[in-house]
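Quick one: structure tokens for this chain, please?
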Amino acid sequence: MSTETVPIQPVNIKRVTTQTLQEMKAAGQPIAMLTAYDYTLARLLDRAGADVLLVGDSASNVMAGHETTLPITLDQMIVHAQAVVRGAKRALVVVDLPFGSYQVSPRLALEAAVRIMKETGGHAVKLEGGAAMLETVRRIVDAGIPVMGHLGLTPQSIYKFGTYKVRAQDDDEANVLRRDALALQDAGVFALVLEKIPATLGAEVSQSLVVPTIGIGAGNGCDGQVLVTHDALGLTVDFNPRFVRRYAQLGETIDAAVKQYVEDVRARDFPSDDESY
């Protein structure tokens, strides 16, 4: 079986940086972020113009089949990130710090972040949480590693929440999110993901910050948007949250293609004479 890979030449190769995202916010140009976990898909997303590729801990769900993001390890995240970095010539590559790699102490968080930067070639890390993570963010940023924050629905805390419902709908939780967003900015994050919160709050927080926000189920008032690529391309069929838009139905396409392949093999129609040596 052939394993040859032919690089796709990106158009207008100019690496997106954290400064680029800041400039995009200032110019009112929305930021497009998608998840990536392997070389092949990363180079396609990069070639198509995605500004940021997030090596998300959602790999735990869509790549490994786990129910939550919690089981994926730092070593596994590093393998995924190495592949994505090899495929991305333009996009900024952000790597999730997985559950357990940063909550214990700022020192251990820094060690995990350093491993990701040294072993993958990624450009930044992302972590979840507000006030409790401020010292950790400062420690990592002070070491020269860019940090993206994440507020609202934080999937690594799903057992604490007990539900995937919209967060910050009441005044108390909304006020905490407002304070956490400003505090994370002060601690040095270069961007902030806002997940599954009311659209009005997403817009308000975005306007209150100097750093860009990336929404996922947080309305159109954020400075950018992110989706799990497997959801956006229709590769997942049993996950249908309101905030997902299916830009393709590749699951159906793959199903039909594989069925045709099996049929052709059974009928000895594949390979043909033209496909043989």
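Strands lie at 31-35, 52-55, 92-96, 124-126, 147-152, 191-195, 213-216, 224-227.
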